[in-house]
Amino acid sequence: MAAGYWRRFVLICFFEFAAREKKMKQEYRNQALKILPWICAKCCREFSGKKLHELTVHHKDHDYKNNPADGSNWELLCIYCHDNEHSRSLEAQWQTSHDPDNVKKPVATHNPFGDLKKLLSVPDRTDENDEAE
C-alpha cells in the first residue's frame, strides 16, 4: 500500500515539475520573440508565420535558468543551428584536452642526404690528365 502511494507521489511531482518547466520555457520564448528579431543568429535565415516554430531560444551561457528580462543571455537560433551548437559542445566535452600538435616528438639525428654532394660531385679530370702525361 505504501509503495503505491510513493509511486503516485513521485509521478505527481514529476508531472508538476515538467509542467512548470514547459510554462517557464514558453514564457521566456515569448519574451525573446518580442524583443529579438526573428532571424537565426547563426545562419541569418528569417522566420515568420508557420515557420516561426522552427526558431528556438538558445542560452549563450548554456544555463536554461539564467533568463534576464533584457534577454542578454538569449539568442534565437533555428532548430538546425541550435542542434549544431549543442552537439559541438557535447563533442568538445568528450574530446581529450591532450593536443597532439603540441607534443614534443623525438628529433631525427640521421641525415639521409648528408653525403649526397660528395656522391654527386664529379671527380676533377685535370688530375687524371696530369698523371697520364
Quick overview:
With 133 residues, the chain is mostly helical.
Kindly describe this structure.
- The protein is mostly helical and 133 residues long.
- It has a domain at 11-95: His-Me finger endonuclease fold (3-Layer(aba) Sandwich).
- 47% of the residues lie in helices and 8% in strands.
- The chain has four helices and two strands, in the order αββααα.
- The chain has a two-stranded antiparallel sheet with strand order 1-2.
- The longest helix has 34 residues, at 2-35.
- The model has no long low-confidence stretch (mean pLDDT 80).
SSE pattern, N- to C-terminal = HEEHHH
CATH topology of one domain: His-Me finger endonuclease fold
Level of helix content? 40-55%
In whole angstroms, the N-to-C terminal distance is 123 Å
Unreliable parts: none
The SS-based structural class is mainly alpha
| Biggest sheet character | 2 strands, antiparallel
- Over all CA atoms, what is the radius of gyration? 34 Å
Give the overall shape, derived from the CA principal axes. Answer: elongated
Instruction: Report mean pLDDT, rounded to a whole number.
Output: 80
Output the keywords.
single chain, 133 residues, mainly alpha, His-Me finger endonuclease fold, two-stranded antiparallel sheet, 4 helices, 8% strand, elongated
List the helices and strands and how they pair.
Layout: H1 2-35, E1 55-59, E2 74-78, H2 79-94, H3 116-120, H4 125-132
Antiparallel strand pairs: 1-2
